[in-house]
Amino acid sequence: MFGNRCARIQAPDGATTLWSDCIVEDTGEPDQFNWDARQHEIVDLPVETLAYLTASRYCESDELTEKAWDLFGATPSGWARVQAISNWVHNNVIFDYRFGRPTKTAVDVFREGTGVCRDFAHLFIALCRAMNIPARYASGYLSDIGAKAEGADDFCAWSEVFLEGRWYTFDARHNTPRIGRILMVRGRDAANVAMITAFGDYLLTHLKVWTNEIDESLSESELVEALENRPLTEALVLEQSSGRLIL
Predict the structure, then answer these.
(1) Entry pTM
(2) Residue 245: helix, strand or coil by DSSP?
(3) Which has more confidence, 201 or 173?
(4) Helix axes of 117-130 and 79-92: crossing angle, nearest 10 degrees
(5) Distance CA 71, CA 124 (A)
(6) Are 139 and 185 in contact (CB under 8 A)?
(7) Where are the beta strands (DSSP E) in the chain?
């Protein structure tokens, strides 16, 4: 779906542990920035971008159109307008894990002014689409290389916007180019890219994520050994939770 890699498993009764580890070679460059990138007229957009112009499950751009044009209608089109939207979301939404919930939509975030990274992305995407700018949801790993560590590692959601013939990364939560952004999935919003969709009851007892910078002086055998041992890292889920979707 949307070009993402998916897999199915049938878990037996009892405890099940899923984990994976890998080493990724990154360019070391921050997210690309192009202040001169222009916004396309809708008639000139590639067909494959049109699905990212309309409202979706978590991005009700149709309900935010009037608000979006009131806020950003006077901004220059193109990169400057998209950056203005990112700035506004970054400055008007408070991040905290306590504010996350699986049913929270862009309209909810706009009204409540709170959320987690996916909520920042959903509101940003909805406002871009309301301004006739194709925008899609992305999720993956984000290292703290070149940035201040913010506690336990976590998956991260961000956005991609189509300008000047290509997709550019925007991250309204951090609102600054970052190094070591490792893409896992893309979709219209989080409903298309759930990390786990479970059919049946389950209890999520804990979730751990690690995104550590590797010492380039390590030998191949030392790298293999590192992959065989899961690092000690803080759990993100401290209390048991249940549900059908982990987003």
Answers:
(1) 0.89
(2) strand
(3) 173
(4) 140
(5) 13
(6) yes
(7) 94-95, 114-115, 135-142, 155-163, 166-170, 181-187, 196-197, 245-246
In this predicted structure, what is the pLDDT of residue 17?
Answer: 87
Q: Enter the DSSP assignment of 204.
A: B
What DSSP assignment string belongs to 116-177? -HHHHHHHHHHHHHHTT--EEEEEEEE--TTS---SS--EEEEEEEEETTEEEEE-TTT-S-
Task: List the domains of the chain with CATH numbers.
Answer: 42-193 (3.10.620.30)
- The Cα–Cα gap between 167 and 102 comes to 27
Tokens coding 204: 């999520």
**Closest to 155 in 3D by CA, of 239, 76, 211:** 211
Is the confidence at residue 2, as pLDDT, over 70?
yes
What confidence score (pLDDT) does residue 241 get? 45
The C-alpha atoms of residue 46 and residue 29 are separated, in whole angstroms, by: 28
Distance in angstroms (rounded) separating the CA atoms of residues 208 and 237 = 8
